[in-house]
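Q: Predict the bound structure with flavin-adenine dinucleotide.
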Amino acid sequence: MPTSPHILVLGCNFAGLTTARYIRAFAGDEVDITCVDRTPYLTFVPNIPLEVWHNNNPAEELHLPFVKFLDRDDIRFIHAEVQGIDVDGRSVEYTPVERSGSAAESVGYDFLVIALGNNLAFEEIEGFAEHGHTLTDTYYGEKLRRYLHEGGYKGGPIAVGSDRFVQGHHPDLPLLPEAKAACEGPPVEIAFSMAHWLEKHEMGDARSITLFTPAEVIAEDAGEKILDELLPMVEDLGFGYRADTEGIERLYEDGIEFEDGSSVEAELKIIFPNWTAHDVVKDLPITDDQGFVVTGLQMRNPDYPEVFAVGDAASVTVPKLGSLGHKEAEICAQMLGRAAGAHEPDEPIPSLEPEVICMGDMGGRKGFYMHTNEWWGGDTSILKIGYTPHALKMGFKTIYYTTGGKVPTWGLPLSEFVGDHALV
Ligand SMILES: Cc1cc2nc3c(=O)[nH]c(=O)nc-3n(C[C@H](O)[C@H](O)[C@H](O)COP(=O)(O)OP(=O)(O)OC[C@H]3O[C@@H](n4cnc5c(N)ncnc54)[C@H](O)[C@@H]3O)c2cc1C
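A: Predicted complex:
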């Protein structure tokens, strides 16, 4: 009896978990699926700031154990660190990480999905460990929570912004706009929600905060129309604003020095780093000049058609946004369902149509909702501010937790529908 094709998914956070579960939905029992991740839980990154403002340790609520969801779909989980990928030999070397001292093993595949995200290169920023803060994972979130809520922060100036992102290039990539920051929804969201936190705690307001960007303009992927609304709002509320910093030279106790030679005074420095490719992926013959995995808009590598990539690890995911990863997950799963002979859609499998869908917290149960593809040449450009976007952001987490990452096909479109048309 022929064996079922084995699909190996590396990484099981937003992109990997959704892809694996959708593969099961599209491929049925025709395939064996295995996921590998160094943690047995998903980190619900976008809600870390909210937990910190509310004085909750973000690890309490935002680590979602996913093994039960994989079990439900008969997907095997390997709790291990991926150590190497042999794309010619179609195998992956890993080390189990539950206890230290485990021996390296390997697993073969017929199809590989790389969903390992990226390396967040704080290590490249001089002075970050001593003087920097961030909200990119629950460790750093908890560190900032303690600093803010346990008397560390003295009410001085705050700077929020990104280091320079170096986007990858490759002749086989579709034409993409060039980003100088990996993802600037979070710094904008944090500036707004932090201003609310400062007011509530009588420690300042928007005027205490300077937003900075390495690019010509912050959140360039929001497109001109939205920025024409957003930037005057930033100015009217009294935020400081620095563009074109070209990146971070170093952090020091009282501020940040930028690559363009300028500096900003800051007691609290909330930093988003460069997103770089993981070493295990970087030098493979499937990557661009920065080590991100090259795919077309159906998430398949052109030279190794059995290799797919989704989420932040894929070159085409610019900016590094979970909502893009979600769309890619569905496309990739359909492609694999078809490859397994179990999915014969009436319509052609769609290609990725890049767009930003972003729901941000602004404090006080208000939020912003952004839906735009203008940066990629499209004509959708919607910005809403009010109570509904905040409810959408909270609602998305509830849907995500309830469905275990298998957000129904109406999940994102429903958010779009409500966000695009609701009175806020
Ligand atoms: C503060 C903040 C707010 C954000 N808000 C939003 C938002 O509102 N909307 C939005 O769309 N996006 C948002 N994003 C971006 C979003 O979080 C990322 O795009 C998303 O997490 C990427 O998902 P991923 O699965 O591709 O990668 P990751 O989330 O990075 O997951 C990669 C997985 O691979 C595993 N892994 C990595 N290397 C190895 C290895 N060698 N061995 C084994 N396992 C490994 C990791 O453990 C992890 O589980 C935000 C980001 C930040 C930092």
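A: The first helix runs from residue 14 to 27.
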